[in-house]
Design goal:
about 300 residues; Arginase, Chain A; 9-stranded parallel beta sheet
Length: about 300
């Protein structure tokens, strides 16, 4: 893991991201709430991904809340709901924690955990609106296995009532999926936007297509960022990342393009094992930057008119 941030220089003219107030101490009408869902016990590959939410929170302090050309992130009202206590054993509790966060803010940001965290993240955000909800995955894999694992979140959400025709998958890789699950995706009506499609068509076009699919019914959209979609050189802390994945910049650009749409109500970051990262912490740092890209996109949205309190 990367060296501690405790020795970072203190410059009042260079504020640091992170260190947001606990949700219980935050006011009303929040912009974003952070939630940790450290799933790991059902992973197909051994992982200590439950260590990642804490590591990402620490890595956020390496960065500034300033983003050129957008409302300063410091102007956003952000809170931290903490971590689900045992999301593998108590998925309902994790779902409720995300629902609480989503109910207080325009955007819920979930830090995994392996990809099993996507189930409570999406269900908690959607609530009773799953009939109109949409899902966008940025992932090398279809995640359509049976059972309960980090290989099954998309299938589990389909089984819960999500329409396959409102699922878009960006970054699906050659040689990283079986024919069986590719056919299952096609049969479900899932829109697959492959790694090659992203390279040929570009980030903005692919993001627009994914949003059109996921937002077709006008319901809330959840974005699942499985960081193993990235090239292994920039995501060595992901057990299943492969050479030839997308670049760190493409991932960051996709996040900003997707979250800029106000139909996106939640986003998760999964499949990073902070304990398996390189000494410079590059995978965890990429997740931290992904969080900041999501916040920058949120800052660029038009703020809704504040609700008036009854007197």
């Amino acid at each position: 893991m990367a060296p501690s941030t405790s020795q970072l220089p203190n410059d009042p003219s260079w504020p640091r991201a992170g260190d947001w107030s606990p949700l219980d101490e935050a006011g009303d009408e929040l912009d974003a709430v952070l939630v940790g869902i450290g799933t790991h016990t059902t992973s197909l590959s051994p992982t200590q991904a439950h260590a990642t939410p804490r590591a990402v929170r620490e890595a956020l302090r390496r960065y500034s809340p300033h983003a050129s050309g957008s409302t300063p992130l410091a102007a956003l009202r952000i809170a931290d709901a903490g971590d689900a206590s045992d999301p593998d054993a108590d998925e309902e509790g994790a779902t409720a924690l995300v629902a609480r966060a989503a109910g207080r803010a325009r955007l819920a940001i979930v830090l995994g955990g392996d990809n099993a965290a996507t189930v409570p993240a999406a269900l908690g955000s959607w609530g009773e609106r799953i009939a109109t909800a949409g899902l966008i995955t940025i992932d090398a894999h279809h995640d359509l296995r049976d059972g309960r694992s980090n290989g099954s979140p998309v299938q589990r959400l389909l089984d819960a009532g999500l329409a396959g025709t409102r699922v878009a998958q960006i970054g699906i890789q050659e040689f990283a999926n079986s024919r069986h699950y590719a056919e299952r995706a096609e049969a479900a009506g899932i829109r697959v936007l492959s790694r090659g499609d992203l390279e040929l068509q570009g980030v903005q076009e692919i993001a627009a297509q994914a949003l059109q699919v996921a937002g077709a019914a006008g319901g809330p959209v959840h974005v699942d960022v499985d960081v193993d979609v990235c090239d292994r050189s920039v995501a060595p802390g992901c057990p299943a990342s492969v050479p030839g994945g997308i670049s760190a910049w493409q991932l960051r650009s996709l996040i900003r393009a997707l979250v800029a749409d106000d139909r996106v109500r939640s986003i998760d970051f999964t499949e990073v094992d902070a304990t398996a990262d390189t000494a410079d912490g590059r995978t965890v740092r990429l997740v931290a930057l992904g969080v900041l890209e999501a916040l920058a996109a949120l800052a660029g949205r038009e703020r809704p008119v504040p609700r008036l309190r009854a007197v």
